[in-house]
Amino acid sequence: MSFEQDDEDQYVGSFPKDFGYGGYDQDGEAGGALSGEQKPRILLMGLRRSGKSSIQKVVFHKMSPNETLFLESTNKIIKDDISNSSFVQFQIWDFPGQIDFFDPNFDSDMIFGGCGALVFVIDAQDDYIEALAKLHQTVTKGYKVNPSIKFEVFIHKVDGLSDDFKMETQRDIHQRASENLAELDSGYDQIHLSFHQTSIYDHSIFEAFSKVVQKLIPQLPILENLLNILISNSAIEKAFLYDVVSKIYIATDSSPVDMQSYELCCDMIDVVIDVSCIYGVYCPFALKEDTDTAAFDNESSSIIKLNNGTILYLREVNKFLALVCILREDNFDRKGTIDYNFLCFKQAIQEVFEVRNKQLSFAGNSNHLAEHVGSEEAGGELVNGQQHS
């Protein structure tokens, strides 16, 4: 089984294969990116033609949903490095549907050992009995190797189903999957499956992937707390912290997420990015070497007034993240207070980045020191020196 990616597969749709960004420091500049070994790994699994590759291309490579109709079936493991922001840095491995976990060539320890989340895609418009059997096999194999994996089930292609049938399908899949796990030994009783209804033709796939990515962000509680403080002191009803490239929200406040509000905020991101690409020198999806001047910078902001008295307010946090707020028009009279509170919020986010980068730098220096000492010991000599921080 091949684990390599074709060298000629450099472009997806109209965008370069490596259009993503590296990490960045507290000033929003590139740098401090995680290495491939440090990045969390998300596995995309499911039967053939379940929609795995389409999900990846639509969410992370801006491919039109209609273009995915012409994608060829995946016949080997495709590794994709996602580095849109310092919080959204991970690898996605797209697996072919015919993969056999009992094949002696399948290295389960290597595949599942470094996995942060496993997304299993089930085609809701197809007979999913075989898919449930594959899900059971996949989950038990992965949990045995790595009990810390987050298991996510995407009940996909629900756009062609009625609302009642969507709920009935999810209940049936949930019940069958839970019963299959209940029949196992007690060693598997800690397995938890999260279910999401998804479609590439609406925002549900972005919302579902947001939930997956959030579970891989160790700073999530800090970000949620900062957003709670911001909205409580600014009369804001809802706030999202978005990655502007993928439209994944990496954090929101503790109030429930209303799907309609989320869709409005996603559409606002699209409007701001489209206008920036049309009238600005730089588009966020441009090649890396074109990032000298950016239309989306620290002066970027947008205000949209809806006819129901609601305000959508966007502010740039750094070159990869944006804060999108929903508030009543009456409360927007306190715009000066909101802007001041936003500056405090932005400073706090920068401090989170600063701490994170120091941790990465310390971890890298520690690994380098260990390798250096190990090589000296192997040569029969020890270096007597002091470590400088």
Care to describe what's here?
The chain is an alpha/beta fold and 389 residues long. The protein has eight helices and 13 strands. A six-stranded mixed β-sheet has the order 4-5-3-6-7-8, sandwiched between helices. Strand 12 and strand 13 form a beta hairpin. The longest helix has 44 residues. The radius of gyration is 23 Å and the shape is globular. The N terminus and C terminus are likely disordered.
Which tags fit this structure?
37% helix; single chain; alpha/beta; disordered C terminus; six-stranded mixed β-sheet; 389 residues
Short overview:
With 389 residues, the chain is of the alpha/beta class. It is built from eight helices and 13 strands.
List low-pLDDT spans. 1-33, 285-293, 373-389
* Radius of gyration from the alpha-carbon trace, in angstroms: 23 Å
Measured distance between first and last alpha carbons: 44 Å
Sheet with the most strands? 6 strands, mixed
Helical content stands at 25-40%
| Approximate strand percentage | 15-25%
Largest sheet: spatial strand order: 4-5-3-6-7-8
Number of strands: 13
Helices, by number, come to 8
Order of helices and strands: EEEHEEHEHEHEHHEEHEEEH
Instruction: Report the principal-axis shape.
Output: globular
Mean pLDDT: 79
Structural class: alpha/beta
